[in-house]
Task: inverse folding
């Protein structure tokens, strides 16, 4: 079984659409303050323009953990 962990940060664009930035393997000790600061910096610096739109607000952040089990179908 393989486990993956991702930090998913969601934002709102100037076209009122939701976009997400994903960070693979975030630190285990990351906290809400650090995540919020990083997200605010993304909005403040305006360095991403998904589909030509500005990112204007933070929406949510979550850590997603996925367990994957592969099966050998050749018996």
Result:
């Amino acid at each position: 079984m393989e486990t993956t962990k991702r930090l998913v940060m969601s934002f709102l664009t100037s076209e009122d659409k939701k976009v997400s930035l994903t960070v693979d393997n975030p630190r285990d000790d990351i906290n809400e303050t650090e995540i919020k600061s990083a997200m605010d910096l993304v909005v403040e610096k305006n360095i991403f323009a998904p589909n030509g739109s500005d990112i204007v607000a933070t929406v949510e952040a979550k850590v997603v953990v996925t367990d994957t089990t592969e099966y050998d179908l050749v018996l």
Remarks:
- Helices lie at 32-45.
